[in-house]
From TrEMBL:
Pathway: Carbohydrate acid metabolism; D-gluconate degradation. It comes from the Eukaryota. It catalyses: D-gluconate + ATP = 6-phospho-D-gluconate + ADP + H(+). Belongs to the gluconokinase GntK/GntV family. It is an enzyme of class 2 (transferase). InterPro entries: P-loop_NTPase, Therm_gnt_kin. Transmembrane segments: none annotated. This is gluconokinase. Signal peptide: none annotated. The gene is IDNK. Its EC number is 2.7.1.12.
């Protein structure tokens, strides 16, 4: 039996202005909304891939547990089992790719601040780290293999 994974894309991104990081007070409700969407989809039996930047461990905790990041309460039927795919690369490689994008919401000028904010996943988080130096087909094949064992 094949497992179908749904790729969750958001048509509305969190509020922000050009060249401005999303303020903390705006980021938390957005992450909580993503948590609620993940819970809803899990409850309906779906497997979901969510693409977003959860640069800090606290943000990933909110995706798993909701607003307060507290452990699951007894009797709660569903929980988010988060598997993080951490794509890593040098500033030069990522910057070069950002500059080639047309019409993307992430301006290349914000890259350094994003890298400064990044808290790479670490144990006991459930994650893999993949270098962006690999080809797209190698990256996707690695992710697909890891999803089979999750």
């Amino acid at each position: 039996m094949a497992v179908v994974w749904f790729f969750l894309t958001l048509h509305k991104t969190p509020p922000r202005s050009h060249l401005c990081l999303l303020p903390f007070q705006d980021r938390i409700p957005w992450l909580c909304k993503l948590h609620d969407i993940l819970l809803r989809d899990i409850a309906s039996g779906q497997h979901v891939v969510l693409a977003c930047s959860a640069l800090k461990k606290m943000y990933r905790d909110i995706l798993i547990r909701g607003q307060d990041g507290a452990p699951q309460k007894c009797g709660e039927p569903y929980q988010v089992k988060l598997f993080v795919v951490h794509l890593s690369g040098t500033f030069e490689v990522i910057s070069g790719r950002l500059h080639k994008r047309k019409g993307h919401f992430m301006p290349p000028e914000l890259l350094q601040s994003q890298l400064n904010t990044l808290e790479p996943p670490s144990a006991p988080e459930n994650f893999i780290q993949i270098s962006v130096d690999r080809t797209l087909s190698e990256i996707t094949a690695t992710i697909q293999e890891m999803l089979k064992v999750q």
